[in-house]
Amino acid sequence: MTKLKHSLIIAILALTVFTVQAQSNYKYDYLYNNLPFNMPKVEAPVFPNKSVSISEFGAHGNGTDLCTEAFSKAINTLAGQGGGTVIVPMGVWFTGPIVFKSNINLHLEKGAIILFSPDKNLYPLVETIFEGLATKRCQSPISGRNLTKVAITGDGAIDGNGHYWRALKKQSVTDSYWKKFTANRGVFKREDYWFPSEQYLKGQQLAEMNVPKNIKTDAEWNSIRDFLRPVMVSFIECKNLYLQGVLFQNSPAWNLHPLMCENVILDGVTVRNPSYAENGDGIDLESCKNSLIVNSTFDVGDDGICIKSGKDEEGRQRARVCENLIVDNCTVFKGHGGFVVGSEMSGGVRNMKVANCKFLGTDVGLRFKSKRGRGGMVENIFIENIGMMDIVTEPLLFDLYYMNKSASEVLQDANGQPVKRMIPKVDETTPTFRNIHIKNISCTNATRAMYFNGLPENPIEGIYVENAMISAKTGGEIKESKHIVLKNVVIRQSSGPALKILNCKDIDIKNVPGEIIQ
Questions:
Q1: Which of 17, 43, 194, 310 has minimal Cβ neighbours within 10 Å of its Cβ?
Q2: Cβ atoms 108, 85 nearer than 8 A
């Protein structure tokens, strides 16, 4: 009996040592050091030790033969065996939509390219969510819904052939590209604004932003089909999603769209779109819980890393907060914003840390945007160690008049004439931004140092900026804000004061040199 007890103790100790070692070998442990909110550790999914190649199912990597059926058969076969890895060898694999199942890792080997067909007939209309609203769009080139354990990994590339889907503005491209691209096809809304088809033009005329309104019948939807561009990678209500190593590029609309997912990891991916790609966002993480975006690069035609949670009443009714996110060691080149929250944030955004990132040539660096009607609360955001250069507007922007004019802008438009300042009541439609901490940031060559533009009925609240050095053409401007702390903030502006403050309360300024107008 003693011998048995001794053996049992040894076994327990061995198991304990193994468990401790396993915990210490967690790849992303360093991200959780001094994390200012509670968040479970997100693990990459592990797949069964089974694999098939798409070439085993009749696919040819010659860039011309359609491989849609081969992808489907490979995924279905492996899923029927409990899952595993679908291997995409070196070659150009031309295909229609790829639909995932649970327990599938799509692995692209070195030299592998998945190229999606521009034939829009291959992408049927499906019910989905876009820009925070329930709608119909063409089926995404890559999609999955209500799945567990899915991954896209490896060293290859995925191209959405997006230029066949998107509109084009003349001022966004060179004259030679414009002439070549628009010759003998498509239609013009204006002489400087080209659409792929009459269907696209009709859809655009019926849409608010990019979501058509008052479309009821299948015939009506099909009459604007070309306008209903899909996001390239759409995963909806999935758990344990892992994107690693792969290059994603040239999407019809947004590149990557995890929607209402849990336990999401992006590690070492590259996301590219031409700078002129309309709605060409890098990643839109919407109403997701427990996510890591690390070691990745974005160079796109709209927002780089964008956080969302639904739009207006639909988003508030969904009530799915986007929460528990760590962004670390990422680079954003071209794009409307480096790290962005909104404008569709009606379900709320909270508990996020963004660190050790570089934004080079983005329109805005750290971009927080919303408007009246959205509702929702953005809170507990922690940002540190951010380097920025050649920022077209501001390295730091809070704008609660997204796509609208603020009260002061209306006054300016009135040519000095009195304008009654209408201040609505605060209700569920009023957005809130509060408790946002930003420290250790540096920016050179911006247009304006910073811009806080809150609502008079519900000011931006509790923004802490510490240890910042910014060079810009003009200084910063803070309006309709309260409980703002600026500590050790150096603004080197080419003209005007370092800082303008208007209609603010409880502004704590410590060691901010230069002229400050209040």
A1: 17
A2: no
